[in-house]
Amino acid sequence: MKVQDKQHIRAWVSGKVQGVWYRNSTRQVAERLHVLGYAKNLPDGRVEVLAYGDTEAVNQLIDWLHDGPEAAIVTEVKTKQVEGETPPLGFEVC
After folding, report:
1. What does residue 9 show for φ and ψ, rounded to 5 degrees?
2. How many helices (H) does the chain have, and how many strands (E)?
3. DSSP SS3 for 1
4. Domain-by-domain residue ranges, the chain?
5. Does pTM surpass 0.85?
6. What is the C-alpha to C-alpha distance for residues 13 and 80, in angstroms, rounded to an integer?
7. Strands of 47-54's sheet in order across
8. Which of 35, 38, 41, 64 could disulfide-link to 53, CB 3.0 to 4.6 Å?
9. From the candidates 24, 32, 41, 59, which is the catalytic residue?
10. What is the pLDDT of residue 1?
């Protein structure tokens, strides 16, 4: 796989996304898609997601972030391309 076939993004997810199993569900979906990175709660109530993997898989994860698990109410997902960072080794819940 060529490097240009990979995508590295950071996403910030707003809404009712803490205390609803959002991070663990994100990890489960990411692992199924073979996407590396992390999901962590932020003090302002959002969840930050770092994702690295095949472009199609990362795009599928981004699509899923807009819905999240059943108990979540996602109001916004902002994404930004990441450049110059070492890709993560697995997917962690922080």
Report:
1. -130, 160
2. 2, 5
3. coil
4. 3-93
5. yes
6. 12
7. 73-81, 6-16, 47-54, 36-41, 91-93
8. 35
9. 41
10. 47
Strand partners of residue 91: 37
The predicted structure's pLDDT at residue 87: 84
pLDDT tens across 43-54, in order?
999 999 999 999
73: enclosing H helix or E strand:
strand 73-81
Reply yes or no on whether 23 is catalytic.
yes
Cβ-based burial of 59 (10 A; exposed 0-12, middle 13-18, buried ≥19): middle
Crossing angle, helix 55-65 and helix 22-33, to 10 degrees?
A: 160
3-class state of residue 70 by DSSP = coil
User: For 3-93, which CATH class?
Assistant: alpha beta
Regions of the chain short of the pLDDT cut 50: 1
Q: Catalytic residue among 10, 23, 32, 59, which?
A: 23
* 37 within 8 A of 58, measured Cβ to Cβ: no
